[in-house]
Amino acid sequence: RFIETVTDLPPGRVMWQSDSTLAALGSVNAPALLPYWSSDHPTLHGLLVESSRSAPFTLTVLGEVSPAPAKPSFREWPKEARYDLDAGVAHMAFMGVRYYVTFTDRATAAADGRPDLRLLASDEDFAVWEVAAQPLVTPARSVPTVQTGGTFDGAARSWFHRPGRLTEWLVESGPPDWPRGSGDPTDWPPPPALAPRGEVMAIANDGERIEFRTSAVGVPHLVRVSFFPNWRVRGAEGPYRAAPSFMVVVPTEETVTLSFEDTWVEWTGRILTGAALAWLLLQAVGRSRARTTAREEPGRD
């Protein structure tokens, strides 16, 4: 019923309340399989969280929206992951989550009546709420700040746990005219504000290709998709890794396209694999010829 209910909703990211009662489905992480049956509804917290840079952030949100979360045992539970629905809703909206699912009476009662959550569907076992999710691509309200000194992961976690400053983007690198900051980002002064102008239109995303049109050329844009070195951009500068683990690009044209492409790492791996296979083939051919020659020599059976 949960899968069918969500599948009938318009496309959007999904976050759910974690609770030990979900173990009756086979695993407390069972809702992470939702995209298997409904590809239009990706989950913020997924089964491959162990290998994801976004794990500390998605686990934090999971704790914020779950009164009594079933804490996973495969990695350290973030100390910031405490039940705080105000922070959880703010984080879900920032991370582009459109649907929040509750499974217990306590969580459902806490969500009921909130102006930032709208009940879409309910069942005896769950309720689905709509979050005012921010778009996949958003122009900046202020100039992003480049983190210097220390680790970006540490700075990003500190920044993420101040929901009131989520509009002040933190990036790992950027143009030389962007402000720099070191130490705890929450102690930094507000970055220079940007006059609101332009809008983003016609966003398309098929997983390995993102395209959008914008009238705010020259203004930094946040793309709410996980950063990875394989992303290449056309029609913009970047992409720059942004907290929590998204991307920032600066359009130089009205149409911007990001594509997930192979790098020298993949090509080197393919070349080495091909060379190894060729060597094994040559060894096999050489041994076959040696056995044939040995059988044909006089005096041998």
Short description:
With 301 residues, the protein is α+β, with helices and mostly antiparallel strands. Helices cover 26% and strands 23% of the residues. It is globular, with a radius of gyration of 25 Å.
Would you give an account of this structure?
The mean pLDDT is 88. This protein is 26% helix and 23% strand. Strand 3 (117-122) and strand 4 form a beta hairpin. The longest helix is centred in the last third of the chain and has 33 residues, at 264-296. The protein has helices spanning 2-7, 34-37, 55-64, 85-94, 105-111, 152-160, 264-296; strands at residues 13-16, 97-102, 117-122, 127-131, 137-139, 145-147, 170-171, 180-181, 200-205, 209-214, 221-223, 231-234, 236-242, 246-251, 255-260. Helix 3 (55-64) packs across helix 4. The N and C termini lie far apart (72 Å). The chain is built from seven helices and 15 strands. It has 301 residues and is an alpha+beta fold. The strands form four sheets. The chain has a four-stranded mixed sheet.
